[in-house]
Amino acid sequence: MRICRFNDNRVGVVRDQSVYDVTQVVAEQLGTFSYPLPRYDPMIAQLSTLIPLFEKAVQGAQPIALSSVKLLSPIANPGKIVAAPVNYQAHLDEAIAEKETFSRHHVRQIHESGLFLKANSSVVGPSEGVDIRFPDRRNDHEIELAVVIGKKSGPVSAANALDIVAGYLIGLDMTVRGPEERSMRKSSDSYTVLGPWFVTADEVGDPSNLSFEITVNGEVRQKANTRDLVIDTPGLIEFASKFYTLDVGDVILTGTPEGVGPVKAGDKMRATIERIGTMDVDVR
Ligand code: MN
Are residues 19 and 146 in the same domain? Predict the structure, then answer.
């Protein structure tokens, strides 16, 4: 199933070119919360209960044209966003070659540098677009397969890692180039774009063979396949889970391939991942 968040925090099921509003089901099923609020995503935590209810609600709902809605991040408040630096060999090679752009101490093998965290305040949906924070510096697009955790987990082996995945999204790990720590340069407001909708794991199948690409103003910038990841999705989940408890709704950005490049206000990005979809994101 493809689940989106749209307009004024509505929840919808996406079918072909239509959205079916199922917000009422979520409201009834999730109820209210008291302080302290849960650290996990309550909608993703109840997916197995919600999906049959969504299915029923779609039957009675009017289709809304997908092109007419404003798409927000399907995961509203990820507890944490774990991200993989230089996780495609060809991107490591380009980073080593371009010494002017890629700060020397950031360019290392992922096994050595490990993972990093992005602030969840940086999350937006495709229709919100990216606000360039430092127009005088280089701001790059990085398209990445994004994994959504569906089961709270301590250390998990790669062999069992896909059992805790709820589904997938497209992630844009927008980046200011420069010498600061990654978590700072990649956590400005709107520098994590998640969308266009959440696709449940059963619809995606094997995450280790997905073609994807991003164009800027119609020009292809990055085009790759997740089979070329240095550490694949199960391996990243294992790696992250050694360090952190993974909570439901946590997002893992799996890393970006070669072809990262700058964007500026006025640019139009279009990101596509096989079996997930396509999202248009404007730069302002
Ligand atoms: Mn990245």
Answer: no
CATH number at residue 116: 3.90.850.10
196 contacts 126 by C-beta, under 8 angstroms: yes
Backbone angles phi, psi at 183, to 5 degrees: -60, -25
Q: What is the pLDDT of residues 123-172, one digit of tens each?
A: 999 999 999 999 999 999 999 999 999 999 999 999 999 999 999 999 99
154 and 243 in a common domain:
yes
Distance 86 CA to ligand 1 centre (A): 7
Rg (CA), the chain: 18
User: Do 24 and 123 belong together in one domain?
Assistant: no
Rounded CA-CA distance 117/78 in Å is 12
The CA 142 to ligand 1 mean position distance, Å, reads 6
pLDDT confidence bin for 96, thresholds 50/70/90 = confident
140, 102 in Cβ contact below 8 A?
A: no
Domain count, the chain: 2
pTM listed for this prediction? 0.96
- Compute the distance from residue 98 Cα to the ligand 1 centre, in Å: 16
The CA 48 to ligand 1 mean position distance, Å, reads 31
Could you tell me the residue range of the domain that residue 68 belongs to? 2-72
Q: What are the residues whose beta carbon lies below 5 Å from ligand 1 (ion)?
A: 142, 173, 256
The whole-number average pLDDT for the span 202-229 is: 97
Domain final residue, candidates 43, 72, 101: 72
In the reported structure, the alpha carbon of residue 173 is separated from the centroid of ligand 1 by a whole-number distance in angstroms of 5
pLDDT at 101: 81
**Amino acid in the structure at residue 43:** M
Q: Count Cβ atoms below 10 Å from residue 184 Cβ, excluding itself.
A: 13
- Same domain? For 167 and 60 the reply is no
Domain boundary among 15, 45, 72: 72
Residue 106 pLDDT greater than 80, yes or no:
no
pLDDT tens by residue, 54-87: 999 999 999 999 999 999 999 999 999 999 998 9
